[in-house]
Specification:
Blueprint (H helix, E strand, L loop, with lengths): L5 H10 L8 E4 L5 H6 L4 E4 L4 H19 L12 E2 L4 E2 L3
Parallel strand pairs: 1-2
Antiparallel strand pairs: 3-4
């Protein structure tokens, strides 16, 4: 993300008093893991990663959302994962 990293986005959201979404950090650098969990990241994925690892992380985030909302069956969320080949969002 040119000019802003994930932590910068979180800071802007907090400054604007926007409720934070469930966050999964995906990066090639492991040194930010502790900082990610300090801002309540659901998971931390190191690049390169495979579809199975991404699916596990999404499932973890989904479980947290459902636990917080107290509704399992009606909670369908779109994944903001970018599919480079098809240029569209994928639903998991």
């Amino acid at each position: 993300m040119p000019g802003l990293d994930g932590f910068g986005v979180i800071k802007k959201l907090l400054d604007r008093k926007v409720p934070l979404p469930k966050i999964v950090f995906a990066t090639a650098f492991d040194q930010y893991a502790v900082k990610a969990f300090e801002v309540n990241a659901v998971d931390y994925i190191l690049k390169p990663f495979d579809k199975k690892r991404v699916a596990q992380s999404i499932e973890k985030a989904r479980a947290k959302i459902e636990a917080g909302a107290g509704r399992k069956k009606n909670s369908k969320r779109w994944c903001g994962c970018w599919n480079r080949r098809s240029r569209r969002r994928r639903r998991f």
